[in-house]
Amino acid sequence: MNPIRTCLVLLALILGFAGTGLRAQAQNEKPAGEGTQAPSTTASRAEVEELRKELAAQRRTIERLQTLVEQLAAVKSLAPAPATNGTHLVNASVTRSATAAEAETGAEPPPQPYQKPSEKKDSGPAPMTAGWNGEHFFIKSTDGAFQIQPYGYVQTDYRAYKGDGAPPDSFFLRRVRFGFQGNYGTHYSFAILADTAATSGAVIRDIFLNAKVNSGLQFQFGQFKEPFAQEELTSVPNLDFVERSFASLLYPAASTAYRSPGAMIFGDLFDARLQYWVGAFNGKGIATANTTNEPEILGRLRLYPFKKSSNDLFKGLGIGGAVGHGRTRGLSNESSFNGTLPDASFTFFPSFHLNGPVERYNGEFTWIKGPLAIRGEYDQLLQARNNVGSEIPDGNDFLSVPPIVSKAWYATATYLLTGENRPENGVPKVKHPLFGPETPGSKGTGWGAWELKFRYEKMQAKALGANFTNPFTPAAVPTFQDHVDRFVTGVNWYPNYWTRYMFDFAVDRLKDPSVQGILPQNYYVALQRIQFRF
Predict the structure, then answer these.
(1) Quick check: 90 pLDDT over 70?
(2) Helical residues (DSSP H) of 324-434, grouped into ranges
(3) What is the tens place of the pLDDT at every residue in 235-268?
(4) What phi-psi label fits residue 70: left (phi over 0), alpha (psi between -120 and 50 degrees) or beta?
(5) C-alpha to C-alpha distance for 166 and 508, rounded to whole angstroms
(6) Closest to 154 measured CA to CA, from 176, 181, 139
(7) 175 band by pLDDT with thresholds 50, 70 and 90
(8) Residue pLDDT, tens place only, 468-506
(9) Is the peptide bond before 471 cis (omega within 30 degrees of 0)?
(10) Which helix (H) or strand (E) is 297 found in, with range?
(11) How many Cα atoms within 13 Å fall on the side-chain side of residue 290?
(12) Closest alpha carbon to 269 in 329, 312, 218
């Protein structure tokens, strides 16, 4: 019960007792003969005097109760929050007042009324909010200063081969990646991504901090993709084909998902018509230290000359290029690029020991118009073999041989039969998903989005030999010069915005004997993938 209400009830009871006493007194003062027999004169005066004393004492008690009620009302407006242990704090002024009253009258002070715990919550940090933004789940502060989003994707494959020495048909998990991304304020963002399906090496793929001064100047530190080519920088869930092209064999850190520890400056200029990247990396792969005192330096430009043009035909045209320079160390047993095809059907070129400079060159273009997308890319890699010797047992050491020169290019075309617009690096917004949740802008359920695709790609690698006519230890290094090309066609089906079924049928044409000694022939490869992302 409310303390003030309790005191008022007590006051009413006391006043009621006082009124009863006064009525009794009045009855005792009636003349004889109007009621019971009148007592003696002496007895009546004593009773009256006693009643007067009691009435005076009651009045003093009422005055003290009124004072206490006023103090309790003041305490109610200034009462502190309840203690965390379940007890409630009592204002010190109330305790002092009660003690003083007890000392003045000698009477027992009235009991402290029960105080109901306050239902008002302590003021503290602003509450967090959570929800779905159409792409990812999120948790963020109400002012938006801090936000974190879980994200990831799962890819399950079935692969079938026909050809001499090809791998067996098999199901397997291609990628199972999960991570978090978010921001702190408007200038800092971060991400961490792990691959739990990795069979060897480090599990962490991305872990970096981005500091954004403005859209034209951003700094990034940690471990992430080295910025070199358009297909490399396309996120895995957004690739048009199950596997990347032959050109991906020539990208930096190709054996470790194109990632390496490093730092980068990048940004968008002139209303995003021009994009640039400049970075320095270890260049040796995921979570791997550099082996030389010279980092791998990369520079890349991407230009959209008609992005703001009124001509819709060329608005989606983007062209770009990149260059890179690094160094290998022979004493660290570093070797040339891996000549195994991305679909693992065969290995067309051997690996050699490296020592010395590494140079990379790239040229690329993308043209998108509504549901149609056409892309192309050319890449070249030069890997020096300085002072590597003859590379045969008991051969000459510290003899230089010609570098390895590798070239690859591809051209692709995709077309969305259901009319969705093709984004440059993203998933189409499905107009009629087979089942929900529906994406913003969808127009009811249907058969999802369907996409046709085609790619032609080619690669050649050359490692020229040399003859060492030293009269004491003559040696010879053989020449390797191999070619391979590939046709890929297939279909992508998007039941909704977050799931995709991919089917690729490829003809891999081995032009020269493979590393395993297999004679030239065609390999037929069927790749299927079911992907879910969030």
Answers:
(1) no
(2) none
(3) 999 999 999 999 999 999 998 899 999 999 999 9
(4) alpha
(5) 11
(6) 176
(7) very high
(8) 676 666 667 788 999 999 999 999 999 999 999 999 999
(9) no
(10) strand 296-303
(11) 14
(12) 218
Give me the helices (H) in 203-297, please: 230-233
Which amino acid is it at 309?
Answer: S
The angle at the Cα of 342, spanning 169 to 334, to the nearest 5 degrees, equals 125
Indicate the length of the chain as a whole number. 534
Which backbone phi and psi does 249 adopt, to 5 degrees?
A: -70, -20
Q: With H, G, I as helix, E, B as strand and everything else as coil, classify residue 77.
A: helix
Q: Which residue carries 């590939």 as its tokens?
A: 486
Q: What average pLDDT does range 503-511 have in this prediction?
A: 97
pLDDT at 128: 82
More confident: 22 or 333: 333
Query: What tokens appear for 135 in the block?
Result: 């792409």
Spatial separation of the C-alpha atoms in residues 510 and 482, rounded to whole Å: 9
> Are the C-beta atoms of residues 118 and 83 closer than 8 Å to each other?
no
The residue type at 216: G
Residue 318 contacts residue 365 (beta carbons within 8 Å): yes
In 117-215, DSSP assigns E strands to 128-132, 137-141, 146-162, 170-184, 188-195, 204-214
